[in-house]
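Aim 2, interim progress: modelling of the zinc ion-bound target.
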Amino acid sequence: MSIRDALAAGLGFRDLALIDAHAHVGRWGSFYMADPSLIQLVRELDRFNIELCCVTSLLAFSVDMTRGNDEVLEAIRFAPDRFLGYVSLVPHQPLADCRREVQRMLDASDRIIGLKFHPMWNNYPINGDLYQPLWELAAEFCPLVLVHCWLGGEEPEANNTPDKVAQMAARYPGVTVIMGHSGGSRAGQLQCAELCRRLPNLYMDLCGSEFGNLWIERLLEHAPADKVLFATDIPFLGAGSPAGRVGYAAIDDAIKRKILRVNMERILATCTRWGRDRFRSSTPLTRHGMTSTANQLALQMGTHHDNPDQ
Ligand SMILES: [Zn+2]
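Predicted structure of the complex, ligand included:
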């Protein structure tokens, strides 16, 4: 049965365990979030058969870098087989603090996979001088960087247009760079597609890409299928939109599997020791033992109710 038919029959993604390249932990002051609790996050992962969720802290790039990054460690402790973490760094912090922060996080957990930059929120261009040494930190310690990336929108978004992000990917060919939201707008997605075609270390993720009104089928006429990554942006957005957009698309199942899992699995296996150990001997495309479900975690927390909807 095809992925599309299985979804239409209400069977979900069954034996295809998804990897979410871009999601968040913690609260956010600027707009409404339904429920950012960790148990609710895991419920959402369970619902869409998302085995691994790569998270960044909202607090870390907005208010308090260290406390925020601690929230990432908390998530990893909460559901150790479901979360992987990016370290958020703020370019306005002293470089010595950023360096210490990266080392602290890598020492704290082997599930720290890379760095996260948010140039729009931090109101500083991704190719500016203050970001330069942070890219060097990525090259030195953890060569995977997720960057918020948008084309159009309000003025601070000019800090992270696809061409500026790609400029950095070109400068650091040893660092794998994910353009978060694929540039957001339709024009942004098309530009990201073109840039991904040119630069081997550049990728684009799908969270929030629905705002560009570009169907996955159309996107894939421009973007290489190996460069597009499933991502949710939970708990800002739900996982249903990106999962459904890919799952129901009129494209081959082999391509859906690449987007929903295989491409990010390859990145993790290439860029992180954790990924190398984890994926070296396993066959891709299978459920890898998703042991901590929301129900099991709720039982441990003493909050489980026998509600089949949860
Ligand atoms: Zn995000």
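The mean pLDDT is 92. The domain at 16-301 is CATH 3.20.20.140 (TIM Barrel).
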